[in-house]
Design brief:
Elements lengths: L1 H17 L2 H50 E4 L2 E4 L6 H10 L3 E5 L4 E4 L1 H6 L4 H8 L5 E6 L5 E10 L5 E9 L1 H49 L17 H51 L3 H32 L7 E5 H11 L1 H6 L3 E6 L4 E5 H17 L6 E8 L5 E8 L33 H11 L3 E7 L3 E9 L14 E2 L2
Parallel strand pairs: 9-11, 13-15
Antiparallel strand pairs: 1-2, 3-4, 3-7, 5-6, 6-7, 8-10, 11-12, 12-14, 13-14
Length: 500
Amino acid sequence: MARFTRVIGIPKLTVHLARGLRFRLTLSYVLFFTVLLVAIGLLFRKQMQYQTTGDVQDALEEEWGAAKGYLKIEYQQPRWIADASDPEEAYIVSRIKHVFFIADENGNALDYDETYEGMGLDSAEEIHKIISKREPTIHTRYDKNGVPYLIKAGRIPDDKGRPYFFAIGRSLAPAKNTVRAFTRAYFFSLPAMIALTGLLGWALAGGAIRPVNLVAQTARDITGSNLSLQIPLRGAGDELDHLIDSFNRMTARLHQSFEQTRRFSTDVSHELRTPLTAIRGQLEVALFTAETPEQYRDAMVNALEDVEKLSSIVRALLLLSQAESGQLALQKAPLDLSEVARDVVDQFQIPAEERRVTLSATLTPEIIVAADHTQMERMISNLLSNAIKYTPAGGAVKVRVGLADAIGWVQLVVEDTGMGIPAENLPHIFDRFYRVRNANTSAVQGLGLGLSFVAWIVEAHGGRIEVASTVGEGTRFTVVLPAGSDAPAEPEITAHTQTA
């Protein structure tokens, strides 16, 4: 069984390796360089063919020019006038006469060598065609053994001016052999070069994907308890650094989300446990101690009040969840923010008087925004409710609506002279269920969801919210929204900003 496992394990390992990114990168390197090396070899081969053939043609041109100086046709017979005692001239003439053919205009052969004869003497028709041309022609011919020769043929006059056919040639075999030797040597060494490229590509691919493997390893190590784990940047500023930075940002967002979920679960359980405990206690007391219908009725009334409180918490959570998940659609329309603020301020006059808090408003007319009327009322109501609840008797709450300093924006300011918010609490006041816990706020009732609604409403309308507070002096919330009857296509301002 062990032997069988090893046999089937090898193909699995091979398949896994072939599917790996390192293997595919290496294969890409090898394919690319194989094509590149083959293209370079073919290019050099073509260039060498052109160069060697050009050298033969240049030599042939030189011999053609020399032949016109040494060859004379007198009395219809060719005669070479080279000085036999001069070795250089004798060598030149012997080179010219190595492959040559001389004939009259009727195609009658006057002189030729065995090599040219082996290629076949030109016919009378071919000779007449070449003589009729003003310039010589160059073409390739093959002997009986298949050896190629470069032939230059043209007309040459005799002492009477009559045209004669003259052709000389040089072998292309040395040039062909040189090209063939290069081709053989290059393409025989090509597998070794490809193998070396594969090894180099494997090493380079390993170095290239090492940061990717690090990201993968870190992702495997991340659990719910160490979401703050970060991968150090390489400092190269390349795509891999961008990937690492994006991964770090993702883990930071996940860490923040998990922390919010944990806090949310803790706060929800705490908020729901209190009314449930009260309901159970009241019902148990009524069950064991009540003796008259009035006592049962009082217990039921108190339980219903706690049930209503519990229902309000659930409704608020449901509404906030729908809002943040996008299920709560905004019905935006041109809206006069000053009119909305005036209506809400009028509604809160009685609660303010009951707490002996002065509520006033300074409203600039015709402050138009593209907004949802219901959500604007909820935003202003939550801000006013908080301001009145946390302002002691004799204090004041002021509401101002007008143009912001930045062009194209309007602002709503809700300012109170209440107890203020400590600086360490400011970054968290828009979190769900978050409430400032101290001796001054312990008697104030609330769910800690109002400012979460405010933050969502401001963000959904493309605005921002700022808060400034001094303990013992008061708090000022400033909501900045885009002016005009058209909503911005995409908000470019963060949901809220806290400044102490």
